Structures are given as structure tokens and as C-alpha cells.
Amino acid sequence: MAGFDIDAALRWARLDPRRPLERRPDADLPLVTAADVAGSPLLLDTCVYIHQLQGRLPELIAQLIEVRQINHSSIALQELLHTVGVLNPADARTQAAVAAIRTLVQAMPDHRLFTPDADVLGRAALLAGILCRLQGYGRDGRLRALMDATLFLQAHKLGLTVLTANLRDFDYLQQLMPTGRVLFYR
Predict the structure, then answer these.
(1) Alpha helix (H) ranges present in 46-166?
(2) Scanning 74, 109, 110, 141, which has the fewest C-beta atoms within 10 Å of its C-beta?
(3) Do the strands 161-164 and 42-44 form a parallel or antiparallel pair, or are they unpaired?
(4) CA-based angle 81:146:48, to the nearest 5?
């Protein structure tokens, strides 16, 4: 496969701790503070968009998004559009939800929307597989782990910081690959 070196990925996978991970205490995580409003460019996890659509985005996070350079991933785009597909067309709320997601997606500038390459996709599959095995993720957690690992490695390759409220999974990913940058919020 062009752009993907399986031998390099397998060497990289030797970082596998072969034991379940424990989520670190909040005090050990890089949780957003007022001092973090200015800083490096961000790649948004899907939960950020969802919280924004639901009106549940903390004020500090809204400020951070206003100040920092924001980048988007086709992974988050997939997850948002998957939601559109899952919504029941007969439900009275669906039309408003789809309209809100449409507006959100249309606001993503093309030059800030990135698609993972073969290297990121291959390594993310490997990393997600390790995470699923270590943590005993069932069927429901496997796809989520793959999407999260892809977003995490995409941000790493682009030199971006992931902004997320998903403390558990991204903490595990950061433990497996400490050079990845994540900024958490509640």
C-alpha cells in the first residue's frame, strides 16, 4: 500500500504495555484552564461539535475556540453525518437536528478540513486494536476506539492538539503514545 510502511508500524506497536490501562486522575490530565485560551492550533473531537449543538459547550471552551486556530477532521465529519443517518426521519426533532449539523459542516473551511492519510489510518487501526484488547472493549467500543485513535494520530501528524471532553479514551491513547497532545475539558 503506497504511503504506508507496515514494518515501521509493527516496530512502533512494540510500545504495547500488554496490560489494561488505568485512567489517570483529573489532576494529572491537561484540563483546560483560563491560561490555555491562547495557544497552539486545535483539532476538534466530535464531542466538541455535539456540545456546541446542544448548547452545552462550557464558556471557557467557547472562548478557546474563538481565540485559537481551529482545524477539523473528516473523522468528526463522518461521525456527525453518521448521526444524521441514525436519526429517525419521523421524529419531529430530526429536521432541526439535521439543519444544525448542515450549518456546522458548511461552516468548516475547506483549508482547515483534513483527511487522514494511509499512514495515519494504518497506525490508528493498530493503536485502536491494542487499546481494544487491553481494555476489553466490546463491539460498541471498537468503532469508537478506531475513530478516536485516527483523530489522535491525525492531530499528532499535523502538529495539532486534540480538544476533547472524552477523558477516558484519549487519556488511554495518550498513555500509549505520550507524544500526542490532548487538551481536555468537562
Answers:
(1) 46-53, 59-67, 74-86, 94-106, 118-135, 139-158
(2) 110
(3) parallel
(4) 50
Asked whether residue 174 is domain-assigned, the answer is: yes
What are the per-10-residue average pLDDT scores of the chain (186 residues)?
A: 72 71 90 91 97 96 96 97 95 95 96 96 94 90 96 98 97 93 96
Domain assignment of residue 69, yes or no = yes
In a domain, 127, yes or no: no
Which of helix, strand or coil describes residue 180?
Answer: coil
- What's the domain count of the chain? 1
The residue among 26, 32, 23 whose CA lies nearest residue 175 is 23
Round to whole Å and give the CA distance between 97 and 88.
11
Q: Which domain holds residue 47?
A: 29-114+160-184
